[in-house]
């Protein structure tokens, strides 16, 4: 029997749904998952029958961030986020669970994000000795600066309503599918050309951030993950204990 794909694909009524499918790893961004998702986005972007892409998940976690056992190369993560931003179809995230660290970069790269009230969010990088470096490329042009400073620096968990206020999530409701319905209906009524050109207008500043900062932020990410402090933080996380710097 063939192994389950890390990203499931389904198509219906002009929509392609890409479902992160590694629930036992909390849909963490492994090198393999990042590669599969990037390839599928490219295929969807070239398909004239696709009006929009929905990015969702199996299990109770949308994405827990980088897979610490099989982390993606920072350049591959930049490429994935850039593909989401540049693909000439709207990409809509559907979240019904937890999102942490690099998973927030996926949300930032998407054009629209809907979340259920059960969802929770946290920038946990500072707690393992690194920084939200690469994910800042799609996020900082879109987030409220004061709120971003708070949650980047503290690693606090926040709910879906706060994610809307921060600019991370577009709309939140008791049920993710109920919140998603009007968005998908609107996208189905729009013309392919209209969607592509409107997305191009909306993503100018985000792509400027990629062009300006990607090199510096990938270098920063690589340096931090190779540091002794990050090794202690990641080891503590995997061993379910506090790192040495916690008082």
Number of helices: 10
Would you identify the regions where 5 or more consecutive residues have pLDDT less than 50?
none
**Side-by-side strand order of the widest sheet:** 1-2-3-5-7-10
Distance between the termini: 49 Å
Helix content: 40-55%
CATH topology: 2-enoyl-CoA Hydratase, Chain A, domain 1
Helices and strands, in order, run as EEHEEHEEHEEHHEHEHHHH
Give the averaged pLDDT, no decimals.
96
How would the global form be characterised? globular
Q: Give the oligomer, counting copies of the same chain as homo and different chains as hetero.
A: single chain
**CATH superfamily caption:** 2-enoyl-CoA Hydratase, Chain A, domain 1
The helix/strand class is: alpha/beta
* Total strand segments: 10
Q: Which architecture name does CATH use?
A: Alpha-Beta Complex
Largest beta-sheet details: 6 strands, mixed
The gyration radius over C-alpha positions equals 17 Å
Q: Specify the CATH class.
A: Alpha Beta
Explained architecture:
With 247 residues, the protein is α/β, with parallel strands linked by helices. It has one domain (1-174, 192-247): Alpha-Beta Complex (2-enoyl-CoA Hydratase, Chain A, domain 1). It is 47% helix and 17% strand. It is built from ten helices and ten strands. A six-stranded mixed beta sheet has the order 1-2-3-5-7-10, sandwiched between helices. Strands 4-6-8-9 form a four-stranded mixed beta sheet. The chain is globular.
Descriptive tags:
alpha/beta; 2-enoyl-CoA Hydratase, Chain A, domain 1; 17% strand; 247 residues; 10 strands; 4-stranded mixed sheet; 6-stranded mixed sheet
């Amino acid at each position: 029997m063939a192994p389950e794909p890390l990203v499931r694909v389904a198509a219906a009524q002009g929509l392609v749904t890409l479902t992160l499918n590694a629930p036992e790893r909390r849909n963490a961004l492994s090198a393999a998952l990042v590669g599969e998702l990037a390839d599928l986005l490219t295929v969807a972007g070239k398909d004239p029958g696709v009006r929009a892409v929905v990015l969702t998940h199996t299990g109770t976690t949308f994405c827990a961030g980088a897979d610490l056992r099989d982390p993606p190369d920072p350049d591959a993560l930049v490429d994935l986020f850039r593909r989401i931003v540049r693909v000439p179809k709207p990409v809509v995230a559907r979240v019904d669970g937890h999102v942490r660290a690099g998973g927030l970069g996926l949300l930032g790269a998407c054009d629209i994000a809907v979340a259920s009230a059960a969802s929770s969010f946290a920038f946990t990088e500072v707690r393992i000795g690194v920084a939200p470096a690469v994910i800042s490329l799609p996020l900082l042009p879109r987030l409220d600066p004061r709120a971003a400073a708070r949650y980047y620096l503290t690693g606090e968990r926040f709910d879906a309503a706060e994610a809307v206020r921060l600019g991370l999530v577009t709309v939140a409701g008791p049920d993710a599918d109920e919140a998603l319905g009007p968005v998908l209906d609107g996208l189905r009524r729009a013309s392919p050309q209209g969607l592509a050109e409107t997305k191009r207008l909306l993503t100018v500043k985000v792509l400027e951030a990629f062009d300006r900062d990607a090199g510096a932020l990938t270098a920063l990410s690589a340096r931090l993950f190779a540091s002794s402090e990050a090794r202690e933080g990641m080891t503590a996380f995997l061993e379910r204990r506090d790192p040495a710097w916690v008082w």
